[in-house]
Design a protein that fits this description.
This protein is an alpha+beta fold and 49 residues long. It is built from 2 helices and 4 strands; from the N terminus they run E-E-E-E-H-H. The protein has one domain. The chain has a two-stranded antiparallel sheet. The protein has a two-stranded antiparallel ribbon with strand order 3-4. A hairpin with a 2-residue loop joins strand 3 and strand 4.
Length: 49
């Protein structure tokens, strides 16, 4: 199983078909929950730098 790190809260996330995610600048970011996904979508530059 693939894993990723949520760039908002820094939790390890098991990547599955229904894992919340967002695409930004040709990269896909995965999140532990939709709240982290929404925070990222509102200001992605805050979390990827």
């Amino acid at each position: 199983m693939a894993t990723a790190v949520d760039v908002v809260c820094h939790m390890d996330v098991d990547v599955q078909e229904n894992t919340p995610h967002a695409d930004y600048e040709e990269n896909r970011y995965y999140f532990c929950c939709t709240a982290c996904q929404k925070a990222f979508e509102q200001n992605p530059e805050k979390y990827i730098k």
